[in-house]
């Protein structure tokens, strides 16, 4: 998929180094569920796990790059949380430092959702941000997600407060970036 100064392609086995690099970025570790300090074997195993979820129809993952010739700078995914409800998925994303502050996350989410709403049964999307993650909250707002509720999540024995944002497919302005 391609958009304005943006290229998305399916995550591939060759992207092991991208995952290793992401696992060493303090901001990605802080705000996402990316495991910390992956080595080559562990990153390869994570990719294999994700490919199994792809084969089962539970996830679609795309590498983010500014253009087809550029090195990848991030990842965005649609994650089906309930196989019995193919109409709802979560959207997740992260960017390495070299991809931040360029509008890539916003454009990647918009492009992914435009594709998903047009070509799949997906009708609702949820996006979760940890309290205090201003950059991700701004992505949610620019993509026209609406704050839904505050939820608790448990990660490694800790309770985390998450902001839940939602977007319905029938919103007429869902794919237009705010100026």
Automatic annotation (TrEMBL):
It holds the Pfam family Acetyltransf_3. This is GNAT family N-acetyltransferase. One of its GO terms (molecular function) is protein N-terminal-serine acetyltransferase activity. Gene3D superfamilies: 3.40.630.30. GO terms for cellular component: cytoplasm. Residues 6-168 form the N-acetyltransferase domain. SUPFAM superfamilies: Acyl-CoA N-acyltransferases (Nat).
